[in-house]
Amino acid sequence: SFIFFKKKKSLQCASKHRKTQTGENQRNGGRKKKINRKMDAELRRRAAEPDNDATPAEDVAPVPQTKRSKVRLSYITLGLGIAALTLYFSSSFDRQESIRVFTPDELAQYDGTDTSKPIYLAVMGEVFDVSSGRKFYGPGGSYHYFAGKDGSRTFESGEGFAGKETRPGHDLSDLALDKLMVVESWRQTYHDKYIYAGRLHHIDGSGYFDAYGQPNNRYSDLRKRVMEGYKKQGLENEERKLHPECNSEWKQNVGGRIWCENGKIPRRGSLSGGPSRCACYDHTTAAQHLDKLTVLDGCDAMASSCPIPP
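Predicted structure:
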């Protein structure tokens, strides 16, 4: 009986200890949960507040890229490059599709003889719709010669009107720079006044555009010369500002004079290589360019005024 009582007592103590331990664990668990909830609330509060003490982005040392991140970046760059090329070529194809390309035989069908069709002409290989000027470009009109063809040379020389073309009408390779710029000014006029209709392709390769309407090497050479012409014109304009035209007066049976003001003297020529003209130069400039500037006939080299006989 003593042993039984001792075992019973031991079992009661163990049961009481387990209950005590379980209650203590529950209390500890509750405290931990409460602490965790407080910590979560504090973290959320801090995340919502602006971090005024944060280190500025420019002061933060760059994080070195790992090999994997570099490879990933390379793939991204490659993908973007392929996408850009695809977009470029697709848009280029669309542009080519939007350009109408004529052959000389096709362009000839639009010379105005068929009133149901528009009137086209070409300048430097570029085709324009001039239907709004049908009375000028249609049959019997003063500019009918240009309809249905590229008669660029005739814009400068007029040789096509007389039927004395020395070269094909679109061939400008032998024109001097100042004459080429006359044709260029006509091209600009048609761009400003009329509708751009397409491009002209010569099957023999003598034109300025290929079968797809894209510029070829002849076009590149042509535009280089035109740019030289614009540069030269710029120099000529500057020369005209620095050295104005001579003043002149003349009366029948009396004669007249050519003169310059402000102590300048008249000379004929051009410093920029442009067309020769009478302009006023200071004595120093005239003396430095004797090879380009000449004294007017019957005029004293140092005189500011020169007589013109009746």
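Summary: The helical segments are 2-48, 67-98, 104-108, 134-137, 152-157, 177-193, 217-242, 283-288.
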